[in-house]
Amino acid sequence: MILAQSQRCIDDIDLDDVQSYTYQIPNSDQKENPHYWDHQQLNYYVFGKFADSTSSDDTTITAGIYNGDKLIYKTEIDCRKGTWSNKILNRKSEVEEILRGKLDRNLTSCKAGEPFDLILKVNNFNAISWIFNAQPLQHEVRIFERCTTNRVAVVDDILIPQTKRISQNKMEKKQCKGGIKRPLVKLSSKFNAYQATKFVTKARGGAKFDRLVFGQCNAWPVRMENKCQEVRNWVIARSKANLTKETIANHLFRFPLDVNVTNGLGVFGNNHIELSPRCLSSKYFHFQQIAVHPDKDLSLMLGSLRSYCCCTNMRTGQVFDNNPEKYCHLSGECIWSGIACEQAVDPTLLLEIEEENKRRQNEGALKGLSKELAKHVSSDSMIASVLRVNNTNTRTGVLSRVAG
């Protein structure tokens, strides 16, 4: 497992420049536990490279999820034609193309030596997104109103939550929210996304696969240690962020190192922007990641606080000491209990960060760290209570729970 380039993923596999690979999805046996992954958000990542000595004339990349040998959903990328197409096995057991588009040559040239990445994001049973080199392989959205009904009790015309166990007459309170956006296409395959038992990748011509990642997690390319901001930019470019001219100023106020981030992919993206790795400097990760992607063990009832807070290696971004059982907690525990991750703080790196910020301050690019920092770096207190970089709470030493 290559933990330095992912956070709490289930599998991170070195593929060694292959052109075909079949990944058996864990806990996907439809007889033993057919609903194991139901309602969970899943991430499949494939990384590779276009071979140095091959042209793109016959280069294609195909990836898809299957129930046994039966297709659920796949994408086909053709470098020569500069196109992509997505196909399903429909209810009549026929392979049907449901989406087609052109590759963005600014993102993908298929030139020799160029790396590529392909992501499949499962949002729910029939909402699945393909992303190739930060280009969403779908288009158009649907806008709708979502209504929920909560049962309440009525006492003298006052609405009281049903959990109060009031025995008087009951009524239903309907709440509606409009303007909800989702991808236009809903998967209408013979099988839903949670019935997948394997993920299959195939390539022809110059495309070679060197890595596959699966889980409920963020992952990024290899060899990006000591490059936190590059990692963050990479993740946000593929995320559900939807930064605009109106919102970017506020975002940069919260995260001043994000001067080179792109807008994100909105509803077509992978994970939410608040789950992106956070940085103390352009090089080093924050020693406490307050919002790491949730997994199956976290109840859906946790809502906006359904994520992990993990003490983190400042160089690699992986969980500290590769021990999530010890160093990952519920995000709420970090916020309310003041867990500060002093074990993960490297004072030598903090001194380097301070010097970088002084230099940037002189250049007018960033504000410096708190003046209190110098007093604490040389002590054993690990300065967790005084950092003021990238939205760090100065009382608890943890990142504030604010979506970017």
- Measured between the Cα atoms of the first and last residue, the distance is 30 Å
Helicity, as a percent range? 10-25%
Number of strands: 20
Helix- and strand-based class?
mainly beta
- Rg: 23 Å
Strand count, sense and closure of the main sheet? 6 strands, antiparallel
Strand content: 25-35%
Number of helices: 6
Strand order of the largest sheet: 2-16-4-9-10-11
Mean pLDDT: 83
Low-confidence stretches: 152-169, 365-404
Helix-strand string: EEEEEEEEEEEEEEEEEHHEEHEHHH
Question: Which shape, going by the Cα principal axes?
Answer: globular
Walk me through the structure.
This protein is mostly beta strands. It contains 6 helices and 20 strands. It has helices at 228-237, 248-254, 324-327, 331-337, 347-363, 373-377, and strands at 6-7, 11-18, 20-24, 42-50, 60-67, 70-78, 83-89, 95-102, 115-124, 127-132, 135-136, 141-155, 158-161, 170-183, 198-204, 207-215, 218-219, 288-292, 308-311, 328-330. The chain has a 6-stranded antiparallel beta sheet, with no helix packed on it. A 6-stranded antiparallel beta sheet has the order 3-15-5-6-7-8, with no helix packed on it. It is globular. The protein starts with 5 loop residues before the first strand and ends in a 27-residue tail after the last helix. The model is unreliable at 152-169 and 365-404 (pLDDT under 50).
